[in-house]
Amino acid sequence: DLQICQHRAPTCCTKKMEESYQAAVRRERTQSIQALNFELKYMIVGHITAFQEAFESLLRFAENGTSSLFETAYRPMAKEAAEPVKELFTDISLYILGAETTVESAVLRFFDSLFPLVYSRLINPGITDLSEDYTECLRLTRQDINPFGHYSKNMVTELSKSLWASRMLSQALSLGIEVINTTEHAALTKECSRALVKMQYCPHCQGLTLIRPCVGYCLNVMRGCLASVSELDAQWREYISTLEYLTNEMAASHDLEIALSGMWNSINEAILHAQLNGPQLSATVDKVCGQPRQQEGNLSSANIVPVKEVTEAQTFAMAHASLNNKRREFISYMKRSRTFYASIAERLCDGDLVMRDSSTCWNGEDVV
């Protein structure tokens, strides 16, 4: 009553053993594909973590530099500016991770929060009553009177270019893991598991436990079993090319590190622009929001302080170099995996599974 290992000679197999063999080949095939995938998956997961750490490190330096700017040059508003600064960098971090937000909304929200502080602490430092209504009016007015000139828009443009590639790379790496996980659990068809039993275990039914499949026979069976997986070859090659493009984009004109390290300077230029146009801004704000309560003897707004270099240049350069090295190492490895899905049958038929350098092997019907 054998269904798979039918043979003219006497056999020591039963139908129940054939069923056990089918369960065994399914388990073995999943394990062998997992073993093949492990190195590739380990490499991608490792680089997701490494890139993330490098992004976080660069963001931290940029955030520290921006906080130092307020503490050094704009002390009257440093304490109140801490929260908007923190929110800005949290939004950027979430954007890189793929959150449903935009760089533009993050940057403009930051400048909306910054304007009431610049207006009440630097342009009109005598203002004492900064009610919620008045603050909200200043926030909304910012969008109409554009107190920060072209600097806020320039910052959006610079960051959008550089952060886009980082965001796409982050999403692409996660997609790679998803694809690999899916191939690990690709179900074997009934025909495939029967073919694998015939190749690996039917010789056992004849007592031939040391005979292994012929190489060509193994390749035919594996290619048939893994046809759906090897169909990924063209898309996988395209995926590797996309990763290469994104890592080059990050390293080229849309350089993430340069954009982040220049943030504090853009914010400083924006604040200086607002201060220099203080009288015109005050006249417009008074018409729109009314006049707030002020202290006697309004303090002068001419407290523009020249800004010292605030970035920790050396440490920032190290984080920059680290990210560049990770990019190069990663893309070099991924390029070597271009043929991963095209050669999966060959790799599974390598090693102990088949008979090499021997005069006898199993061809599915007999020993040849």
Task: List descriptors.
368 residues, Glypican, membrane, mainly alpha, Glypican_CS, heparan sulfate, GPC5 protein
- Structure annotation, total helices: 15
Structural class: mainly alpha
Number of strands: 0
Q: Whole-Å distance between the termini?
A: 26 Å
- Share of helix, binned: over 70%
Q: Major β-sheet, in short? A: none
The pLDDT mean sits at: 85
Using only CA atoms, what is the Rg? 33 Å
Quickly count the domains. Answer: 1
Q: Mind explaining what this structure looks like?
A:
The structure is a single chain. With 368 residues, this protein is an all-alpha fold. It has one domain (15-291, 319-349). 71% of the residues lie in helices and 0% in strands. The protein has helices at 15-73, 75-96, 103-123, 132-145, 151-184, 190-200, 202-205, 215-225, 227-230, 233-251, 256-261, 263-276, 278-289, 313-336, 344-348. The longest helix has 59 residues, at 15-73. The radius of gyration is 33 Å and the shape is rod-shaped.
Care to give the gist of this entry?
This protein is mainly alpha-helical and 368 residues long. The chain is built from 15 helices and no strands. It has one domain (15-291, 319-349).
